[in-house]
Amino acid sequence: MTRRGDDYALCLLWLLLLVVACEAQDLEQKPRIINGSIARADETKHLVSIRLKRHDNNFGSGHICGGALIAPNKVLTAAHCLYNNQRKRYRQPSEFVVVLGTLNRFERHNGTIVSPVSSMAYMHTFSPDSMRDDVGILFLRTGLPDGGGHLSVAPIQLAGQVTPPGRVCQVAGWGRTERSSLSNILLTANVSTIRHQTCRMIYKTGLLPGMMCAGRLQGGTDSCQGDSGGPLVHEGRVVGVVSWGYGCAEPGLPGVYVDVQYYRQWIEERSSSASSYLRRMPSALVIAMIMMCRCL
Fold first, then answer.
1. Which pLDDT tens digit goes with each residue over 97-133?
2. Given 46, 80, 222, 243, the catalytic residue
3. Using an 8 Å Cβ cutoff, are 150 and 111 in contact?
4. Which of 49, 115, 119, 228 is catalytic?
5. Do residues 28 and 249 lie in contact, with contact meaning Cβ atoms separated by under 8 Å?
6. 80 catalytic, yes or no?
7. Percent of the chain with pLDDT over 90
8. Annotated catalytic, 223?
9. Which of 56, 133, 134, 222 is catalytic?
10. What is the CATH number of domain 32-37+156-261?
11. Is domain 46-155+265-292 in CATH 2.40.10.10, yes or no?
12. Would you say the pTM of this structure is higher than 0.85?
């Protein structure tokens, strides 16, 4: 082949690589639990599906975020799950419905609890531009029955101490799969907590107090958009809440979670009688939130 032919072949090769890279990048930006497996009911009794009531006429289609039941009528989630991007305002409690006790988001059986939201709590210092204090609570109007056990639903405890690096944790959600559609079945993935110093080197000033990293530095397994608000669990306790990240499951870019231990006192002190609503934020801050958060 002539030199001109060599150059032509080389250009074609670079063009092919560019197309493949663009397709891969597009796939990575789509929301999903990366390399997940089907959840076990006995390990995820605390998992809830947070839905928009007006979109859930077809049971299961209104899912927007995950959460963890931490008391009979109290759900821990992410603050950014509560924002309505189209109307540039935070949602009212009446716009939500929470579903407990089902792995398949489209199935409703005898063990399923469907509850309206009576009120919600948040931190006034929550910032959509930096994702600072991205922690929220929903209070259920219909929680667990008083004084009785439940076969498919049970609260989970909060972490009582700082989780050391290198601990294997479980993250779960109904986010989009590699096929680019929301998963019907709850999926779980195992990720590891990462040293704060390492996470700080990666995200620099973007990593604020109250944030922690978990994932795999080599990439391949991660939470992603659509899994927001879901719990990060270690040894049967919630250690984190899915918050934000750059890309999904990419090498060197672990997911960033709310550090539950950091906010434990605030979470435990919140009650339905002391709940409050989120303030309206400038649209520029909202745009920054949507770019980073792991919501739908």
1. 999 999 999 999 988 999 999 999 988 888 888 999 9
2. 80
3. yes
4. 228
5. yes
6. yes
7. 55
8. no
9. 134
10. 2.40.10.10
11. yes
12. no
